[in-house]
C-alpha cells in the first residue's frame, strides 16, 4: 500500500501530462487517519467523475457500537453520515479547472431515510464512497491542484464528517430514534388490522411538486378523527396518537383543494422512514403498498387481464395480453394485476390519475351500452373481492362518484385538511339514493397464472443490452424504458439500482420456468444479506434500496 507522500509525489510528477495518465493512481493510499482507494478513474475531465472510497478505522472514527446495534439503527446512521457529507460538500467552493475539476460529491439524499451504498459500516471501518473530479487545465493534469484536493481538502472533509467527536451526538441519537420508532410503528400495523397510520401533529403538505420539504407556513397539523384514533407507545417517542386506517376498502372524499390527494401522497411514501423535521416521521403505510395509476402508452407483456378486461371484439383473448401501447384503462388493470403477482397487500389510487372508464360504469351508461358490448369490468365491482378473497386492501381518493359508498368499509372526509370519519353518513346516503347499477365482474383472481423471466432478459443485438439511467428513464441501448409511472421511486440511486439488478438478472442462468415473483424476492433477499457489491463489478456509492415491486414494474415495461 502506498502512502500519502507517494500520492503527493505521483501527482506532482503527473503535472501537465495527458488526462488519462491519472489512471496510474488506481491503487490504495494510506493517510494518517484513513485509507483512500481509487476504484474507477475518469478518462476525461468532462466525463463522469472518478469513484473513490475513504475507509476510516472504527478505532479512529470512534462511533459507539450501540449506534449500529440493530439493522434499523445501522441504516439510519449510514443515512445520517451521508447527509453530513452531502451538506459539507454542497457548500464548498470548487477550485478552477476544466470539466468536473475539483468536484467532491456523494449521493444526495431526499427526505427519506434509505439504505444506500454511499456509506458502509462494518465492525472494522466506516467507508464513504465519493465522486471526485480530478483537476485539469483543458485536458492536461493539474497535479498541484490535485495535491490540494486529495491531500488537504479531502482529509478535512473526512475529519469533519466521519469522526464521532466532530458531530452532534444528540442529533445522531434523534435521527436513529426517529427511524427506530418508524420501523416499530410500521410493524404494529398488521397486528392492529391496519394498513396505514397518520400521527397527530403530522405536517402533510409539501412546499411544491418538486420540493418534498414540509410546507413552511400555514400548514395545518394533522388531527385524527376520534372514531379512528389509535394510541401507540413507541420505544423512544413514547405515546403517539393518530388516525389508523383499517384493512379493507377505504374511500377518501372531500372538496377540491381540501387535502385528499395530499393525504394519499403522504401515504404512498409511508413505505419509507423520514428524517426528523420532515413532518411525516410517523406516517406509516403497509410496506408492500403500491400506488396505482393509468399509464397510457406503456408496454404490457403476457398479463392475464381477464378479471378486469375480457370478451374483446372478434373474440380476442385477454388471458395472455401483450401490447406496446396500452390505453389508460388497460394499463391501470395491468398495473394492479402485476402488483398482485409480486405480493402487494395495499393498493393506493387517486381518481385524478385513474382512467374513468376503469373505475366506474354508472347505471345510465350500462343502459346505453350493454355489458356484452363492454369488455371492461370496472374496479368498483372487483375491489371488495380483492379484500374478502385475497386480503388486498384499497385506499381510494374519490371526489366525483358516490357509487363507491356501496363498497367502502371506511369513508374519510377531508375538510380544510382536517379528516372526519363519515362512514355512517355515506351508508345512509347510499341507502337514500341507490345507484341501481348492475355489478359486472364475472371473473375472479383465483386463476391468475404465474409468469417467469425470459432468458435472456435483455435483447442481445449489438450494444442494446447495455443499461443506462437518464432522469426517470432507463436507456436500453437507444431504447427508452419510461419509469415515470413508478411514483414511489424517489431517488436517482433507486433507478441505478434497478439497472444493476436487471443486468444481473440478464446474466444469470436461471432455471427454466422460475416464477417472476420468486426470482425477484430471492434477488432482493440476496442483496439484503450480501449487499449490492455482490452484483457490481466494483463498489458503487450511488445505489439506493428498491423493492421487488418496483423491480418487477421495470421489467414489465421493457419493450420486447
Automatic annotation (TrEMBL):
Top-level division of the source organism's lineage: Bacteria
Alphabetized SUPFAM superfamilies for the sequence: P-loop containing nucleoside triphosphate hydrolases
InterPro entries: ABC_ATPase_C, ABC_ATPase_put, ABC_N, MRB1590-like_C, P-loop_NTPase
Pfam families, A to Z: ABC_ATPase (PF09818), ABC_N (PF20446), MRB1590_C (PF21117)
Domain ATPase of the ABC class C-terminal: 170-443
Domain (MRB1590-like C-terminal): residue spans on this chain: 472-560
PANTHER family with a match to the protein in the record: ATPASE
Full protein name: ATPase
Amino acid at each position: 500500500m502506498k502512502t500519502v507522500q507517494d500520492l503527493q509525489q505521483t501527482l506532482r510528477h503527473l503535472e501537465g501530462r495527458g488526462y488519462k495518465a491519472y489512471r496510474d493512481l488506481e491503487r490504495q493510499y494510506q493517510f494518517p487517519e484513513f485509507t483512500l482507494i481509487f476504484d474507477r478513474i475518469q478518462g476525461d475531465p468532462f466525463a463522469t467523475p472518478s469513484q473513490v472510497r475513504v475507509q476510516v478505522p472504527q478505532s479512529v472514527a470512534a462511533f459507539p457500537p450501540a449506534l449500529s446495534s440493530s439493522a434499523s439503527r445501522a441504516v439510519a446512521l449510514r443515512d445520517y453520515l451521508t447527509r453530513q457529507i452531502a451538506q459539507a460538500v454542497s457548500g464548498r467552493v470548487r477550485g478552477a479547472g476544466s470539466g468536473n475539476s475539483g468536484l467532491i460529491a456523494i449521493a444526495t439524499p431526499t427526505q427519506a431515510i434509505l439504505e444506500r451504498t454511499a456509506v458502509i459500516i462494518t465492525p472494522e471501518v466506516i467507508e464513504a464512497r465519493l465522486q471526485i473530479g480530478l483537476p485539469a487545465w483543458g485536458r492536461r493534469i493539474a497535479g498541484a491542484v490535485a495535491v490540494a484536493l486529495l491531500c488537504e481538502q479531502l482529509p478535512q472533509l473526512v475529519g469533519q464528517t466521519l469522526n464521532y467527536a466532530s458531530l452532534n451526538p444528540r442529533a445522531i441519537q434523534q435521527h436513529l430514534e426517529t427511524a427506530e420508532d418508524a420501523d416499530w410503528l410500521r410493524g404494529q400495523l398488521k397486528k392492529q388490522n391496519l394498513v396505514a397510520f397518520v400521527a397527530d401533529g403530522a405536517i402533510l403538505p409539501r412546499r411544491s411538486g418538486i420540493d418534498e420539504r414540509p410546507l413552511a407556513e400555514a400548514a395545518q397539523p394533522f388531527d385524527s378523527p376520534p372514531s379512528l384514533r389509535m394510541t401507540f407507545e413507541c420505544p423512544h417517542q413514547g405515546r403517539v396518537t393518530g388516525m389508523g386506517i383499517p384493512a379493507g376498502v377505504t374511500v377518501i372524499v372531500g372538496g377540491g383543494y381540501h387535502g385528499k390527494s395530499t393525504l394519499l401522497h403522504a401515504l404512498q411514501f409511508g413505505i419509507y422512514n423520514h428524517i426528523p423535521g420532515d413532518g411525516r416521521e410517523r406516517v406509516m403505510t403497509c410496506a408492500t403498498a403500491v400506488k396505482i395509476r393509468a399509464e397510457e402508452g406503456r408496454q404490457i407483456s403476457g398479463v392475464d387481464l381477464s378479471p378486469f378486461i375480457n370478451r374483446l371484439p372478434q373474440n380476442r383473448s385477454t388471458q395472455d395480453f401483450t401490447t406496446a401501447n396500452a390505453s389508460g384503462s388497460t394499463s391501470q388493470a395491468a398495473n394492479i394485476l402485476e402488483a398482485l403477482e409480486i405480493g402487494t397487500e395495499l393498493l393506493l389510487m387517486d381518481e385524478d390519475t385513474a382512467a374513468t372508464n376503469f373505475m366506474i360504469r354508472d347505471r345510465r351508461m350500462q343502459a346505453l351500452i350493454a355489458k356484452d358490448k363492454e369488455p371492461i369490468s370496472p374496479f368498483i365491482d372487483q375491489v371488495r373481492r380483492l379484500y374478502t378473497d385475497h386480503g388486498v386492501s384499497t385506499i381510494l381518493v374519490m371526489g366525483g362518484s358516490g357509487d363507491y359508498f356501496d363498497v367502502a368499509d371506511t369513508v374519510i372526509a377531508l375538510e380544510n385538511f382536517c379528516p372526519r370519519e363519515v362512514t355512517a353518513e355515506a351508508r345512509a346516503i347510499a341507502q337514500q339514493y341507490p345507484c341501481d347499477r348492475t355489478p359486472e365482474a364475472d371473473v375472479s383472481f383465483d386463476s391468475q397464472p404465474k409468469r417467469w423471466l425470459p432468458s435472456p432478459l435483455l435483447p442481445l443485438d449489438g450494444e442494446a443490452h447495455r443499461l443506462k439511467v437518464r432522469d426517470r428513464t432507463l436507456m436500453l441501448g437507444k431504447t427508452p424504458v419510461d419509469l415515470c409511472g413508478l411514483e414511489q421511486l424517489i431517488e436517482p440511486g433507486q433507478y441505478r439500482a434497478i439497472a444493476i439488478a436487471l443486468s444481473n438478472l440478464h446474466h444469470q442462468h436461471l432455471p427454466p420456468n422460475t416464477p417472476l415473483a420468486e426470482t425477484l424476492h430471492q434477488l432482493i433477499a440476496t442483496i439484503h444479506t450480501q449487499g449490492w457489491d455482490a452484483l457490481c463489478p466494483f463498489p458503487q456509492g450511488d445505489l439506493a434500496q428498491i423493492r421487488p415491486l418496483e423491480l418487477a414494474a421495470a421489467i414489465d415495461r421493457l419493450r420486447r
